[in-house]
Specification:
The protein is an alpha+beta fold. 25% of the residues lie in helices and 31% in strands. The protein contains eight helices and 17 strands. Strands 6-7-8-9-5-10-11 form a seven-stranded antiparallel sheet, with helices on both faces. Strands 1-2-3-4-15 form a five-stranded antiparallel sheet. Strands 12-13-14-17-16 form a five-stranded mixed sheet. β12 (226-229) and β13 form a beta hairpin. The chain is elongated and about 65 Å long. The protein starts with 13 loop residues before the first strand and ends with a strand.
Length: 323
């Protein structure tokens, strides 16, 4: 079957063509992701603009399943740079020197200088900021901790003397794990909790230690991403996937909160397991009767570009639509 060209090469609109035909027209560095599993009854690819990058999108609607597999394929390589992840760790240290000495004596390969926290083995460095007591800090931990930080810890955060801020851009899961270990090392020396300034999420020490020790990469969504019920009806969204250099998610569907959490966790973990240069949203989750899932990807309209929560990688919109 011939391929009629609707747009000037190399960006071409395809409709009802087999993947082999589409792949033959595209030139490198385009990547094409084959659909997983069932037969395909419709394929539509179209051009759109995102992040000042040309992207080719395609949908695959599966026979009888009510599910959509959605993936995006970057044609160009001008992608956003990893953002600086910022962690806040308050404590009741009398001064900076006390924490510096305690960390050195712990012999866990971390040291503090006036400007950085360094790991002496893997050479990872984290920019630091050392701030005195902040009266409003406890309230932000109470809000972002979502009720999971014990009252006795909250009382100590209220009486904190200093806060250590760590900042670093992480390129992959290994570097995210190393940043978790750096924060855990501060918690072991009197840190009271960890708050992700770039996600609006706080964890008590026990949770952070548990996540840091847990194997696998699916824990990164739990550690770095918060799930939020929006003020609009039947709307739920995530915040924090930009720390993983990946799109966030918004779900618009008539779901109970527990169902929405399950859907979002499953989809975000699927996204997190992809590389930033080859994203594929591939899921198999229940859908309300008479509906099917549809996914699109657009710029992040939830937060302004200068907001720490803004995701330059965009945001998936996952909706239920009539079959």
């Amino acid at each position: 079957m011939g391929c009629k060209r609707f747009l000037a090469h190399p960006f071409t609109l395809f409709s009802q063509f087999p993947l082999s035909t589409i792949r033959g027209v595209l030139k490198k560095p385009a990547l094409l992701i084959d659909p997983v599993g069932a037969d395909v009854d419709s394929q539509i690819m179209y051009k759109t603009y995102l992040w000042d990058v040309e992207y080719i999108h395609h949908y695959f609607t599966l026979f009888g399943s009510g599910y959509v597999i959605y993936s995006i394929v970057p044609y160009m390589t001008h992608l956003p740079e990893p953002i600086d992840i910022v962690l806040a760790i308050p404590g009741q240290w009398p001064d900076f020197d006390t924490l510096q000495v305690a960390l050195a004596e712990a012999k866990n390969d971390f040291i503090l200088t006036d400007a950085e926290m360094l790991h002496m083995v893997n050479d990872q460095a984290y920019a630091i900021s050392w701030e005195t007591h902040e009266p409003a800090l406890a309230a932000t931990f109470e809000t972002t901790g979502k009720g999971l930080i014990r009252p006795d810890i909250m009382a100590r955060i209220e009486a904190h003397t200093f806060t250590l801020y760590l900042a670093r851009a992480c390129d992959d899961a290994e570097e995210l794990q190393q940043m978790m270990e750096a924060a855990a090392a501060i918690l072991e020396q009197g840190g009271l909790a960890v708050k992700l300034e770039t996600a609006g999420l706080a964890h008590p020490p026990a949770t952070w230690f548990k996540l840091t020790r847990r194997k696998g990469t699916d824990k990164l969504v739990e550690a770095f991403v918060q799930l939020v019920r929006a003020s609009q009806p039947n709307t739920f969204y995530s915040c924090g996937m930009h720390q993983l250099s990946l799109p966030d998610l918004c779900v618009e569907a008539p779901l109970e909160a527990e169902q929405a959490v399950m859907v979002m966790q499953r989809v975000l973990i699927a996204v997190q397991e992809q590389s930033p240069q080859k994203l594929q949203l591939n899921f198999d989750i229940p859908c309300p009767s008479g509906q099917k899932w549809a996914a699109t990807l657009a710029k992040d309209a939830f937060f302004e570009a200068d907001d720490l929560f803004h995701n330059p990688w965009g945001r998936y919109l996952l909706q239920t639509v009539a079959k």
